[in-house]
Amino acid sequence: MALFGFGKKKEEVNSLNSGCCCGSSCSDDANKESGEMKLTGARVKVLGSGCAKCNELEAATREALKELGMEITIDHVTDFTEIAAYGVMSTPALVVDGKVVSFGKVLKKGEIIKILQNIREN
Predict the structure, then answer these.
(1) Residue 31 to residue 45: CA distance in whole angstroms
(2) Cα–chain-centroid distance for residue 32?
(3) Whole-angstrom Cα distance, residue 10 to residue 2?
(4) What are phi and psi of 75, to 5 degrees?
């Protein structure tokens, strides 16, 4: 039913969701070729408004990466549109290689280390 243009909007939404969460046409195959799927070139993001809890998660993540000897840049995403694209409704959230691994709580350094080690093994 195209009443009030609803049908067209649905098509537009579907075309937007067909690519990567960043709006481009990224794919897992492209990431594998560039070496970004494993943690040697991993992408780590903290999603949140920049509040104290979000900053605390970012700091714990930095400490965990440092303890593991990993030199990875952490992106702090504050744009709510991009946060919603990950399906996150409760921040802070931690994203590794495009996958949300935690949301709605501040992880401790030890918890983050376990998560990163599990991802490294897979």
Answers:
(1) 16
(2) 17
(3) 10
(4) -95, 135
54 is annotated as an active-site residue: yes
- Tell me the CATH number for domain 44-122: 3.40.30.10
Amino acid present at 66: K
Choice among 20, 21, 22, 54 that is catalytic: 54
What is the pLDDT, as a whole number, of residue 77?
Answer: 95
Specify whether the backbone of 4 is left (phi greater than 0), alpha (psi in -120 to 50) or beta. Answer: left
Question: What residue ranges do the domains of the chain occupy?
Answer: 44-122
Contact 64, 96 (CB under 8 A): no
Alpha carbon distance 82, 95 (integer Å): 12
Known catalytic membership, residue 21: no
pLDDT per residue as tens digits for the range 52-94: 999 999 999 999 999 999 888 999 999 999 999 999 999 999 9
